[in-house]
Amino acid sequence: IALLIFRDLPDNPAVEWDTQLLATLVLQHIEAKNINLVVTFDAGGVSGHANHVSLYAAVRYSVCSLLWVPPWAAAGRCQVLVLESVNLLRKYISFLDVLISCLLPRDALFILTEEETEQAKRAMRCHRSQLLWFRRLYLLCSRYLVVNSLRLL
Fold first, then answer.
1. pLDDT tens digits, 103-116
2. 153 in a structural domain
3. Do residue 69 and residue 124 come from a single domain?
4. End-to-end Cα, the chain, rounded Å
5. What is the rounded distance in angstroms from the CA atom of residue 108 to the CA atom of residue 139?
6. Which structural domain, as residue segments, surrounds residue 126?
7. Helix orientation angle between 50-61 and 19-33, rounded to the nearest 10 degrees
8. For residues 96, 123, 125 and 1, what is the CA-based torsion angle, rounded to 10 degrees?
9. Beta strands 108-111 and 147-152: pairing type?
10. What is the pLDDT of residues 64-105, one digit of tens each?
11. What is the pTM of this model?
């Protein structure tokens, strides 16, 4: 199955993944690990990254057609939160976006501590092959390293 994943789900910002295949894999993982909360990208994929958008589509497909549970039987239901994509200005104003995010409607808001922000930056730096110029800008001033607003799917 690993060969299938690498061939059919390449890490490539221009490649859309197969929704049904990915939904099946995600659902299998949710069921195998008894997961009750999934956090994923929204329809914008934060940066328009095709893989991120595909993941949202697959999770939405899973929730709407495979995981749907009637409201009266929702006790064991898996909840899904989607990370809000914001415009370019908000994306790169770092901690200044906290005030904006607090004022806007959302279902969940996570504000990282300075220590958590530094931990996230250290994790990003471990992936040197991924550190292109725009990711270096991301490390300097992205709001996503400080604040994340999410909505229930």
1. 999 999 999 999 99
2. no
3. no
4. 29
5. 23
6. 86-147
7. 60
8. -120
9. antiparallel
10. 766 555 555 555 578 899 999 999 999 999 999 999 999 999
11. 0.84
